[in-house]
Amino acid sequence: MSNTAELLGMSTDELRQAQQSGTTLNDLAKQKGVSSDDLIKSITGDLKADKPEGAPELSDTQLADMASNIASGKRPQGPPPGDRAQSNLKDLADMLGVDVDTLLDGDISSLLSQSGLKSSLVGGVSVDRYA
After folding, report:
1. How far is residue 91's CA from residue 103's CA, in Å, rounded to a whole number?
2. What pLDDT, on the 0 to 100 scale, is given for residue 122?
3. What does the alpha-carbon distance between residue 71 and residue 65 come to, in Å, rounded to a whole number?
């Protein structure tokens, strides 16, 4: 967020601290006399510049929506925790080449071994070691 910090006349550390204290970027922009449009353009530029490697390309509309949410302090909404757990189970089952029911009913250690992974249970926690 270096461009946005510069636009607001702050260091990136000062910007981060302000956000951690609950001040939104919209609040800071208003205090500094920066227009909402300029703020959104700056955040959008930072999103493009700081895009993680391998992240999907986003449309200008998606970027502007994200920038607007960031400016107002809204957190991204992910799937409900149950959906995420179900998705993780399906991903693991796919990786092991079985269906979710087989994964849940089966012996995880033997499923991992069959797929070429080694696993041991330590205090009820699965510790994976790649073959």
Report:
1. 11
2. 44
3. 10
In contact, 40 and 67? CB cutoff 8 Å? yes
Structure tokens given for 42? 């700056």
pLDDT recorded at residue 80: 61
What is the DSSP secondary-structure string of the chain?
Answer: -HHHHHHTT--HHHHHHHHHTT--HHHHHHHHT--HHHHHHHHHHHHHHTPPTTPPP--HHHHHHHHHHHHHTPPPP---HHHHHHHHHHHHHHHHTS-HHHHHHS-HHHHHHHTTEEEEEETTEEEEEE-
With beta carbons less than 8 A apart as the criterion, state whether 71 and 29 touch: yes
d(CA 13, CA 39): 18
* pTM, rounded to two decimals: 0.57
Please write the tens of the pLDDT for every residue from 31-49: 999 999 999 999 999 998 8
**Per residue in 85-119, pLDDT tens?**
777 778 878 877 888 888 777 777 677 677 666 55
Neighbours of 39 (CB within 10 A): 23
Cβ neighbour number for residue 4 with a 10 Å cutoff = 27
